[in-house]
Amino acid sequence: MSMQGATVFQQKVSRMLSRHQKKPVLKPNKPLVLKDEVANRKIKKGEATCVTEMSVMMACWKQNNFVDALCPNETQAFFKCVEKAQVAMRAKTEQKTISQSGRLPPKLATILLKKHPNKDIEI
Q1: Where are the chain's structural domains?
Q2: What distance in Å separates the CA atoms of residue 17 and residue 23, rounded to the nearest whole number?
Q3: Residue 1 — very low, low, confident or very high, per pLDDT cuts 50/70/90?
Q4: Which of 20, 47, 52, 120 is most buried, with most CB under 10 Å away?
Q5: What's the pLDDT tens digit per position in 12-32?
Q6: Rounded to whole angstroms, how far apart are CA atoms 77 and 67?
Q7: What pTM, to 2 d.p., does this model score?
């Protein structure tokens, strides 16, 4: 029984191989052509910020049965930290976009690709 299974498998493999070069015949499910756009993937953000402030705020909430009004200092400290982190992140992304030393975001790459007059050359 196993001998018959092996011959069936060998027949399938022999059908998949081309007769001239003995390599598998490619049958792509999509056309082998480059698209005019870049995949829109999000760039990883990096390390989390304000974790300490958030932990202190949540500990205060837990001690006070999750009443917001009893933890104003901790909540204010957390929101100040978040605001500083957002400002720093915006400045960092603007600097990268202006200097163009880092990676291009996918949306900007697609826009530049569509605006380029000759799409055949490498940008």
Answers
A1: 46-110
A2: 5
A3: very low
A4: 52
A5: 777 666 565 666 666 778 777
A6: 17
A7: 0.44
